[in-house]
Amino acid sequence: MSKKIVNDTCPVARSLSVFGDTWSILILRDAHAGFTRFDQFRKRLNIAPTMLTKRLNDLVENGLLTKRRYSENPPREEYLLTQAGRDFLPILFVIADWGSKHVPHQNPDLMHQFYDDQQGTMIEPVVIDQQTGAKIGTRKISIHQGHYVQKLEKS
Are the C-beta atoms of residues 20 and 11 closer than 8 Å to each other? Predict the structure, then answer.
């Protein structure tokens, strides 16, 4: 986490400082798809090795991935999702859903889709407030920090 963000009290800012760049999110996407090894990530993402090394190290340092040695000679490690990394899966689905609606490919039939393997149905994420059962985005919200309250109006 960047030094500038470490004292920020906003969970959005703190979260984005951990996985807020495209490469890190794509690495997490592929880790959820079962990729664990450096070469798998590099080939799948077509990412420069130095960039991949930095992003993997950042994800390990921030607790989303853990390294495990799978070969002694030559020494090789794989990257496995931690609980924090597994908890990112619903966020990936929400990002994908938003992207499908608002940043579609010129040929929508080519876009990736995510399916529930047990049901065989396409995943359509919905984010709800556990306290009220209301779909997030259907009601006005406010942000509280201590005694200060800032109302955000729904556009």
Answer: no
Over residues 101-131, the pLDDT tens digits come to 999 889 988 888 889 999 999 999 999 999 9
Cα distance between residue 106 and residue 109, in whole Å: 9
- For the chain, the domains span 1-87, 95-155
Element holding 13 (H helix, E strand): helix 11-19
- Yes or no: is domain 1-87 CATH 3.30.450.40? no
pTM of structure: 0.84
Most distant pair of Cα atoms in the chain: their distance? 59
Model confidence over 66-81: pLDDT tens digits?
Answer: 999 999 999 999 999 9
- Which sign, positive or negative, has the C-alpha torsion 10, 24, 49, 56? positive
Cα 39–45–121 angle (5° rounding)? 110
C-beta separation of 79 from 36 below 8 A: yes
DSSP 8-state class, residue 28: H
User: Contact, 114 vs 97, CB < 8 A?
Assistant: no
How far apart are the C-alpha atoms of 40 and 25, rounded to whole Å? 15
The pLDDT value given to residue 7: 66
